[in-house]
User: What shape does this take?
Amino acid sequence: MEEIKVFCPATIANVSCGFDVLGLALDSVGDEMIIRKTSEKGITITKISGQELPLETTKNVSGVAGLAFLEKSDFDGGFEIEIDKRIKPGSGIGSSAASSAGAVWAMNELLGKPFSNLELVQFAMQGEKLASDVAHADNVAPAIYGGFTLVRSYNPLDIVPIPTPNELFATVIHPQIEVKTSDSRKILKTNITLEKGIQQWGNVGGLIAGLFQNDYDLIGRSLQDHIVEPIRSILIPGFDKIKANAIHVGALGGGISGSGPSIFALSKGEKIAQKVAESMKETYKNIGIEFDIHVSKVNTQGVKRIS
Amino acid sequence: MEEIKVFCPATIANVSCGFDVLGLALDSVGDEMIIRKTSEKGITITKISGQELPLETTKNVSGVAGLAFLEKSDFDGGFEIEIDKRIKPGSGIGSSAASSAGAVWAMNELLGKPFSNLELVQFAMQGEKLASDVAHADNVAPAIYGGFTLVRSYNPLDIVPIPTPNELFATVIHPQIEVKTSDSRKILKTNITLEKGIQQWGNVGGLIAGLFQNDYDLIGRSLQDHIVEPIRSILIPGFDKIKANAIHVGALGGGISGSGPSIFALSKGEKIAQKVAESMKETYKNIGIEFDIHVSKVNTQGVKRIS
Assistant: This one.
C-alpha cells in the first residue's frame, strides 16, 4: 500500500469532570487526509484545503507528529500529506489532534503497523505541543483508540480505553468566537481546594462506572465539573443557558468541549440528541451568535481508512 | 424475627487514590453484634465486650446510628444492642463504621427491610460523625453494600457499588500506635495543586476501570496517592519500608488504610497476600513495633447474618 485516505475524528476532551484525562471521539465530524509513501526522506505537506494552515512541516501539527513518527521508525523513505481540513482550528473539538492523530495512524498503516496505539499517541502528542504548548493526550488518545479514553497517567503515559454505551450521542455547538487553548489554560488556577478535588474524582469514578455499566443516569449525574467549567465558561457567551436548556430537553449532562468555546451535551439516543441540537440552536439564535452544530454517535473506532 | 446476630466487617477507606470516596470491605476481620427488638422505645446498649467503649446510647456510634434509624422508622418499639468489639478503635480499618453499619443493617433486617442500602448508609453516617466529627461514608458504604464502593457525591449522597475481581486479597497491618481520625484530618492541607488533582482523578478512573475489567495490573498502577499519603504517612513509622517491601514481594500496590495507622496492600491471590503479610511482619519486627496483621479476601457481601 502506497497511499491511504483516512477520516480523522473530532474529539471532545475533558468531558466535564475529567479535566486533562478523559476524551471521546465523534463520528460525523472530522477531517480527511491522504498520506502517501515517498522514497524521499522527511515529511512534505503538499496540499491543505478547507482552512488556511501552514504547509511548512515543522509549523504544521501533522508534520511535527509525522517527524516524531519517522524519527522512531526504521522506514527509509518519507511521506506526503494532503489535508482536507473540515474541523475549524480553535473550535475546541480537537482540530489539531485530528491532524496529528490522522497522520501518524495512516503512516503506521502504510508501514504495516510497526507501532502500538500508545506509541502513536506519543507521536501525535508532539503535534499537540506545537498547537498549544502542552503535549496533552486527551484529544489524540480518543482520536487514535476510538470511543472514550482515560489518560490514567502522563508519566509514564498510560491510556485506558473505556467502553462506550451503544446509545450514547453527543451534540456539539461551536459558537463563532475564538478561544485559544493556550489562553484558556492560562486563566486556570494552579491550586484547587481539596474539597473540590474530592468532588471531581468522585465524578470521574462515577462516569467510568456508568460507562462500564451502560448506566445512563449515572453518566448524567457524573457529568459535573466544579473546577474548570466555572472559570472557563465565563469566556463562552450563553454557556449557562445552552447547558441548562439542553438538560431541560433531555440531555444527560454536558459542559465545555476541551478548552472551548464549543459546548457539548451527551444524550441517550439520537432523537434526544437532535432535540438538544434544536434547543442549542434556538438559544444561540436568540442571543444572536453564529454557530456550527453537530450531532454524532460516539465513534468507537477512531481514525479510520476510507479508501 | 426478634433477634439477629451479625458479622460487621472491617473496611479500608480511601484505597490510595480515592480519598473520601472509595472503600472496600474485609472478610476475615470484623465485629459481631446481637440486635434485639424491644417493645420499649429507644436504643439500649446492654453489653460491650472486647473493648472499653461507652454504653450510653448517645455516646456510642451504634447507638447514634440506631437513633437515626428509629427516627425515620415507623416502628413503635426499640432495640437492644450487644457488641463483641474485635476491631480496635483508632486502627484505621473502620472500627466505628462496623458498629454503625452493623447496627442499622441488623435493625433493618429485623423490621423486614423497610430501608434501602443508601438510607442505611445515611443512618450509619451519623455514627461516623460522632466518631470523627465528619459524617464520612467511605467506610460505612462498603460495610453495608459489600465489595468496593464509590461515594460519587455527598450532596446528594450517591453510592456506586463497584464489582470486585474474584482473586483480590487485602493484607492489613496495624502498628500499635494511635492516630485519631480527627487529628489525621487536621494535618491535611485545604488546597492541592491542580496538577496533583489531575493525577488523582486519573488514578481513580484507572482503579475503577481495573476493577470492572479484572485488570490486576491496572489496579496496581492506579493505587497511587500523591495528595494525602505523602502527608499522613509521616505519622506512621516504617510506612515507606512496609509499602516498598510489600510491592517487592508481589503486592499490586498499597497505602494507608483510612486515616491510618493501618497500612494495606492489595494482591492477586491469597498466596501473594500471605507473602506480603510475612514481609510486613518482618519489617515491623526489625523496626521493633508491635502489630496485628490480617489477610482477607475482599468481602462482597458486607454486613451479614451469622445466626
